[in-house]
Amino acid sequence: MSATTGIGTFTIRPLDPLKDAELLHSWVTHPKAAYWMMQDAKLQDVEREYMRIAAHEHHHAYLGLHEGRPAFLMEKYDPRYVELTGLYEPEPGDVGMHFLVAPTDRPIHGFTRAVITAVMDELFADPRTRRVVVEPDVSNEAVHALNEAVGFVPEREIDKPEKRALLSFCTREQFLAARGVAV
Asked: What Rg, from alpha-carbon coordinates, does the chain have?
């Protein structure tokens, strides 16, 4: 996928767990990635985790590029089998999502919103995707605001083994409406 925005062009490619592990390690252990819960991970831990995801039938990881340079991580998963199993009643066409923007010394205004928009465009490019599901930490106010900006509606708090999470959903129609596209 490739999308051009006012901030530039974003592309998304499958993650290579071994080739990309060092880069990912620097991202997930950065203080700004605290909610990713890998602050103390060793390089081998990151390799192992993304090898596990690569081998999983219902969980996929992608590297997002901005103007050809690595800029974000995107994961998509089937919530019937990963992350949310038994925590809500999945509907046909539900797709779970995580994203992490790379730390930078030169922030670009609106960049993170452009990233989540590119991620949602990618997920909804699949006509089978009817609704995107997220489960961020309840205390992650910044991501709640971003999610709301692209159309997510919180449903309820849930208890996951690693955190208290805010279960939220965004339909294709809600996403398009948030972007100002008539449906």
From this structure: 16
Would you call 87 helix, strand, or coil by DSSP?
A: coil
From residue 142, alpha-carbon distances to 45, 68, 112, 121, 145 in Å are 27, 26, 10, 20, 5
Half-sphere exposure (CA, 13 Å, Cβ side) for 60? Answer: 14
pTM exceeds 0.70 for this model: yes
Per-residue pLDDT tens digits of the chain, which is 183 residues long? 555 567 889 999 999 999 999 999 999 999 888 888 788 889 899 999 999 999 999 999 999 999 999 999 999 999 999 999 999 999 999 999 999 999 988 888 999 999 999 999 999 999 999 999 999 999 999 999 999 999 999 999 999 999 999 999 999 999 999 988 776
What's the distance, CA 18 to chain centroid? Answer: 20
Distant-in-sequence, close-in-space partners of 56: CB < 8 Å, separation ≥ 6: 82
Q: How far apart are CA 144 and CA 9, in angstroms?
A: 25
Question: Can you tell me the distance from the alpha carbon of 72 to that of 74, in angstroms, rounded to the nearest whole number?
Answer: 7
State how beta strands 94-101 and 131-134 pair. Answer: parallel
